[in-house]
Amino acid sequence: MTRTNDPITVAGTTVEPGQREDVACVVSESYTGDTTTIPIAVINGVEPGPRVFVTAAIHGDELNGTAACQRVIDLVEPEGLHGSLIVVPIVNVLGAQIHSRYLPDRRDLNRSFPGSNSGSIAARMARIVFDEVVTGSDVGVDLHTAANRRTNVPQIRVVADDQRAQELAVAFGAPFALAASIRPGSLRHIAHEHGIPVLTFEGGEPLRFDDESIEVATLGILRLLSHLDMRDAGPPPPSQPPVYMNESKWLRADRGGIIDMQVEPGDHVVEGQPLWTTTSPTGAERRAMESPVEGVVIGGTTLPLVSPGDAVLHLGIPGDRPPFEDDPSEEEDAVSTRH
Fold it and tell me: What angle do CA 161, 166, 167 make, to 5 degrees?
């Protein structure tokens, strides 16, 4: 077979067409001088095509994306790939080592982009990921879970006014799609500024594997590669297009106590529907919470104990889907889990 693609170089390693290389990208060193590396799989196809990156565990405790990356790496062969795929199963390796969302100095890596070569560890890691993975790519997928003591239904979050990203979200095929504002300093923010559409996937909860979220993420990435003509075949599209939500709202406890939840993630709720009941430890006092709007439960707490003001349920508010050129089927406050 004639190789017509170009070699690509990532973190000093050149990968020829038709080859896959596992790259250990040096990002820092420990107190003892041991090197800290980010593992990267570079798959360079035989034929020319787009360059796509997939990142996971930018928050070190968000592991569903890591499992999805492993599956994608196993399934995508360079001989059948048009273009190149760069997969980073664990970006925040230092946070992952201590089972933490954050870096050891408590900085949030996903608020540190584009970073710098001479700043904090977070800044240096962000800069290397931006230079070696994001730069030169055409499309990206960034895999996340909910924050600690929360869970999310599998969903894609995209910029509301980015039609290219909206189109790719439909091709991905997650059951829900949310128009979410961009957080400054996030990977999605810096990629958007450089004209690279990035789909942010959310699914499950931290520090554990959720089979459904992993499966949705894996199939979505494979569908996306097929949509971009990077693979000849991909998983079939889902039977239903995503439920599109143009905004979301966190509902909070108005009193402390023990939560008795009456809905589940993924449920469609109507205005006035009971969502949960808060009771005192002895059960002597009760307070019911009704939904103030119609929406879909896209996330919520996994902790049954709440204090006044704690975020309990995350509702997505369905809206009209924006127009798509290629449709195959025919912020919030500081506690938000948006990325």
Answer: 135
Q: Using CA atoms, how far apart are residues 214 and 136, in angstroms rounded to an integer?
A: 27
3-state secondary structure of 192: helix
Burial of 198 (0-12, 13-18, 19+ CB in 10 A): buried
Nearest to residue 291, comparing CAs of 274, 308, 279, 304?
274
Q: What is the Cα–Cα distance from 33 to 215, expressed in whole angstroms?
A: 39
- How would you list the strands of the sheet with 274-279, edge to edge? 286-290, 274-279, 257-261, 305-306
pLDDT in tens, the chain (339 residues): 445 799 999 999 999 999 999 999 999 887 888 899 999 999 999 999 999 999 999 999 999 999 999 999 999 999 999 999 999 999 999 999 999 999 999 999 999 999 999 999 999 999 999 999 999 999 999 999 999 999 999 999 998 888 899 999 999 999 999 999 899 999 999 999 999 999 999 999 999 999 999 999 999 999 999 999 999 988 999 988 899 999 999 999 999 999 999 999 999 999 999 999 999 998 887 889 999 999 999 999 999 999 999 999 999 999 876 544 443 333 333 333 333
Which pTM was predicted? 0.92
- Integer Cα distance of 171 and 197 in angstroms: 13
Give ∠ CA 28-112-114 in degrees, rounded to 5: 90
Q: Which residue reads 């608020």 in tokens?
A: 111
Q: What is the spatial distance between Cα 186 and Cα 110, in angstroms, rounded to a whole number?
A: 5
